[in-house]
Design a protein that fits this description.
Blueprint: H1 4-12, H2 18-32, E1 39-42, H3 44-59, E2 71-75, H4 103-110, E3 114-119, E4 131-132, E5 136-137, E6 139-140, E7 143-147, H5 153-160, E8 166-171, H6 177-183, E9 186-189, E10 209-214, H7 217-228, E11 241-244, H8 254-263, E12 269-270, H9 275-293, H10 295-299, H11 308-318, H12 322-337, H13 340-345, E13 348-352, E14 365-368, E15 371-374, H14 375-378, H15 384-389, E16 393-397, E17 407-412, H16 417-429
Parallel strand pairs: 2-3, 2-8, 11-12, 11-13
Antiparallel strand pairs: 1-3, 4-5, 6-7, 8-10, 9-10, 9-16, 13-17, 14-15, 16-17
């Protein structure tokens, strides 16, 4: 695969120009001709200008940053200077252009990364499938007849195909972890509020977070340093691991169950409490807050400009009583407090990320409790209750060469992202997890 740290090292030492790196990736995107339906806009002019600035900095003896010359893309809900922020909807295709970049993009640019594209998503991030009425359905590079997951499907597919070294997505109820699992990547949902949300189109503020997709843990660690503006400190203490039971031990692929057995054969199985009620409360909070974002559009008679599958759920959310929302938030506070003794005892909790490998586009359903249900709704059955807690969660790909990807999620205490990176590295060293690129993935060479 196309590692960001390797590209940056080559650019910083003068082995290759940032401009050449950008041209290679622009050519690869053009050759792909959006067969993945992952890209909504290619930002060639901006990318070339940013790359030229990096080359000029190096020529003058300056430091272009730890991500020097690394191309990347962002989910189509980040503000990009000069472009309307559409959030995947035709409703905002002609909105006034953003006047400044989202804070996350600004931090990446300061570190030398080069923005190349905006990427497909479920409209307003409301779904787990990236089935978009305006742009089409994003395809999984491991099998073009299958979903890439969502709502950050474009961000996942483009990295899994090797067309960009990393991307940014957003995760409200699993929208990074689900597509990471289905496309075989690392995907991080940070501690709620752990990364800057300024300049990101909102869905449900109680759960919205941004995070990266990468094909390597080393890239993920560097991106965390840049995006969080933090510095790693050495950690030597042994890690205490548990696995989640109850609903997390149901509705998962047998290979996931076997992988969890191998990852933590002696770890205890613990319960998070009433997980089904937590997911129901998360649905209510998401619907209420999502509906509130779009009440003005509905009041102005713009409802027919929404994707029908999105519109009906947002309208229903806008009609929820305040008392129901307050009750769901009260339960959330109780549920979250109950985690404190668990994280006093354990550093990492293990659970499946998506319940299965990628469903087909022709029949986008998953089996939940033996019943076929819409993938757009239920691919997040295992991720949504974790978002409810605000805890960080890292989707980790199981090592499955030649087979459709599956993943597990590693869950930590608030602020415990680096602990998750550390445990994930241990799993890689044991040969249990890692990237299995799809056939024909772009490698970044000439």
């Amino acid at each position: 695969m196309n590692r960001a740290i390797d590209i940056a090292a080559a650019v910083r030492t003068g082995q290759v120009r940032a401009s050449d790196i950008v041209e290679r990736h622009l050519a690869a995107l053009a050759a792909d001709d959006n067969r993945l339906v992952a890209v909504t806009r290619v930002l060639a002019e901006r990318a070339r200008a940013e790359a030229q600035q990096i080359d000029a900095t190096i020529a003058a003896g300056g430091d272009p940053g730890p991500l020097a010359g690394v191309p990347y893309g962002v989910k189509d809900l980040f503000d990009v200077t000069g472009l309307p922020t559409t959030a995947g909807s035709s409703l905002y295709a002609d909105a006034p252009p953003a006047t400044v970049d989202a804070t996350a993009i600004a931090r990446l640019r300061a570190a030398g990364a080069v923005l190349v594209a905006t990427l497909n998503m479920d409209e307003f991030a409301y779904g787990f499938a990236t089935i978009n009425a305006a742009h089409g359905t994003t395809r999984n590079p491991h099998d073009l007849d299958r979903l890439a997951g969502g709502s950050s499907g474009g961000s996942a597919a483009i990295v899994a195909a090797g067309l960009l070294p990393f991307s940014l997505g957003s995760d409200t109820n699993g929208s990074i972890r689900v597509p990471a699992s289905l496309t075989g990547l690392y995907g991080l949902k940070p501690t709620h509020g752990g990364l800057p949300m300024a300049g990101v189109f909102p869905f449900a503020a109680s759960f919205d977070d941004i995070g990266p997709f990468t094909s390597s843990l080393a890239d993920l660690a560097v991106l965390w340093d840049v995006l969080s503006e933090s510095v790693a400190e050495p950690i030597e203490t042994p890690l205490r691991v548990a696995r989640l039971g109850g609903r997390f031990a149901e509705n998962l692929d047998p290979d996931q169950r076997n992988a969890i057995d191998a990852i933590a054969p002696d770890a205890p199985t613990i319960s998070l409490g009433d997980v089904a009620r937590a997911r129901a409360a998360a649905f209510l909070i998401t619907a209420f807050e999502g509906g509130a974002v779009h009440r003005a559009a509905f009041a102005q008679g713009q409802a027919l400009q929404f994707d029908p599958a999105t519109r009906d759920r947002l309208l229903a959310g806008a009609l929820l009583p305040d008392a129901v929302y307050a009750e769901a938030q009260a339960f959330r506070a109780t549920f979250t407090r109950a985690l404190e003794p668990i994280f006093a005892q354990y550093d990492v909790l293990i659970a499946p990320s998506a319940p299965c490998f990628a469903p087909t586009i022709a029949d986008p359903q998953v089996l939940i409790d033996g019943v076929a249900t819409p993938a757009r709704r239920d691919l997040g059955i295992h991720t949504q209750p974790i978002s409810f807690t605000g805890c960080p969660a890292l989707a980790v790909p199981l090592l499955r060469p030649g087979r459709l990807p599956l993943g597990v999620q590693l869950i930590g205490a608030p602020g415990g992202e680096r602990t998750l990176f550390r445990f994930a590295a241990m799993l890689e060293e044991r040969g249990l997890t890692g990237i299995s690129p799809p056939a024909g993935a772009f490698q970044g060479e000439d």
